[in-house]
Amino acid sequence: MRIYLSTTPNNGVVPFDYQQKLIGVLHKWLGKNNLHDSISLYSFSWLMNGKLLKGGFSFEKGAEWFISFYDDSHVKEIVRTIIDDPEMFSGLTITDVDIQETPNLDEQDHFRVASPVFIKRKIDNNIKFYTYEDAEANSFMVETVKHKMKLAGLPNDETLKISFDHNYLNRKVKNVRIHGIENKCSMCPVIIVGKSSTKDFIWSVGVGNSTGSGFGAIY
């Protein structure tokens, strides 16, 4: 299930690295509902409808973004929390909340990303980042989804394949700074082949690592 959020216009420049602020707002809402888990079975987009300025972004007509949950039971709880405490940052305040059921994804294999896809692995005590430029990236996306499915108590999907769309001309590598650390990510659509129930799961939890920190949301 997905929640679409609309906000007021900002009253101050929204900084380029606003993702950390977005994480803080979401965790404020999640914390009040005790939804923190050892692994994030949810994902959320970055802010949409922004205008690029010299020092950041402006949302003259308000911002749009969404949050998706695998467990639908949490939706009513977090909606109540958002309504009770709608303030975000830079003057952005939630004005509208719409709930969308998971759509029928039987015929959909191509998905755009609403936040960068982040893939990392620990190699000899060092963290290595992977992007669409790396051959291993596709298998790592599958590996992460299957791990989340197992933790969610879902059966393994042997048919699952996830790959970056290398035909997308505007694909790019993006560096995202969180807590002072530069993370190398991919802004590139993904192609997902698998059971309908698996695609439903991924539509909610996203692809790649750290979806609970604003990476890998798809639509």
What's a quick, concise take on this entry?
The radius of gyration is 17 Å and the shape is globular. It has 4 helices and 14 strands.
Average pLDDT? 94
In CATH, the architecture of the largest domain is 2-Layer Sandwich
Element order: H for helix, E for strand: EEHEEEEHEEEEHEEEEH
CATH class of the largest domain: Alpha Beta
Which sheet architecture does the biggest sheet show? 4 strands, antiparallel
Annotation field: number of helices:
4
Ranges where pLDDT stays below 50 over 5 or more residues in a row are none
Oligomeric grouping of the chains: single chain
Question: What level of helicity do the residues show?
Answer: 10-25%
Structural class: alpha+beta
Overall 3D form: globular
> Total domains, how many?
2
Q: Record the strand order, biggest sheet.
A: 3-6-1-7
Strand percentage: 25-35%
CATH topology of the largest domain, which one?
Answer: Alpha-Beta Plaits
Beginning-to-end CA distance, first to last residue: 12 Å
Using the CA coordinates, give the radius of gyration. Answer: 17 Å
**Number of separate strands:** 14
Report on the architecture of this protein.
- This protein is of the alpha+beta class and 219 residues long.
- The chain has two domains: 2-100, Alpha-Beta Plaits (2-Layer Sandwich); 110-213, 2-Layer Sandwich (Alpha-Beta Plaits).
- Helices cover 22% and strands 29% of the residues.
- It is built from four helices and 14 strands.
- It has helices spanning 19-32, 75-84, 137-151, 196-205, and strands spanning 2-7, 14-15, 42-44, 51-52, 56-58, 64-69, 94-100, 110-111, 119-123, 126-130, 161-164, 172-178, 181-187, 190-193.
- It has a four-stranded antiparallel sheet with strand order 3-6-1-7. The chain has a three-stranded antiparallel sheet with strand order 2-5-4, with no helix packed on it. The protein has a three-stranded antiparallel sheet with strand order 8-14-11.
- A hairpin with a 2-residue loop joins strand 12 and strand 13 (181-187).
- The chain is globular.
- It starts with a strand and ends in a 14-residue tail after the last helix.
